[in-house]
Write the structure tokens for this entry.
Amino acid sequence: MNRDIFIKNLTKEKIELSPKGRNANELSPEEFEKCYENFFDMIFEIAGTDISSLTGYGEFDENNQAPWKSIEEFIKKDVVEEPEDGYWKNWTKMFGTTFLQKDYYYDIVDKALKYAPFCEDQRYLANNNTFFRNMIVDEAGKTYCADWGRAGIMDYMMDFAILDLNKPYLLVPEKLYEYAKKRNIEIRNFKERFLCMAYYKGIATLRWHASIDDIESCESIVRSINALEERMNKILG
């Protein structure tokens, strides 16, 4: 089944798959400050989808199934193991030949896996591609995800972590913590779950940009990753 049709059916047509409006990447920090709750509302609306008919974790495969038994397995399959074919076949040859440094890479992977137990059983529909360039803001300020090609079943903190990785200066987790308190939304193990998703997606994104020799983006991602723990500690006081 086509991915868009699958998502449309899964969400009972509550999610607009062909939104019209302004690309969210064009928002200034001041504009985001005024409408960030709409982004958060969107992610929680996505996470509220009934997925009781689905099993597993991870990005949906070509059959729209989440193929892994746990978050830990999902992470390991994606950023530790080498696939037999495809873009990432023999990807470990990048160590020493690109920006990607072996010790740093596996240190961040270990941090993601350290926090993975806090994300187990946190099974939600996630867009898993909430970079600002993939989102639309309409005239009323409502936000939409325009690309569902990497959607899957995982902790909804993934979608917040990607927002932050894209533009950490917008202080997404800091805003999310206050938003949740104001809305009486309980996010258990806030720090651990956010860090797991952020470390995983951060290192996966770093690998991608290293593979295309995008050094500027690699350096930005490393700065973002390295600041995460201190930021989380400040949020929780």
Remarks:
- The beta strands are 22-23, 58-59, 124-126, 135-137, 143-145, 152-154.
- The helical segments are 3-10, 29-47, 71-79, 102-115, 157-166, 172-183, 190-211, 215-235.
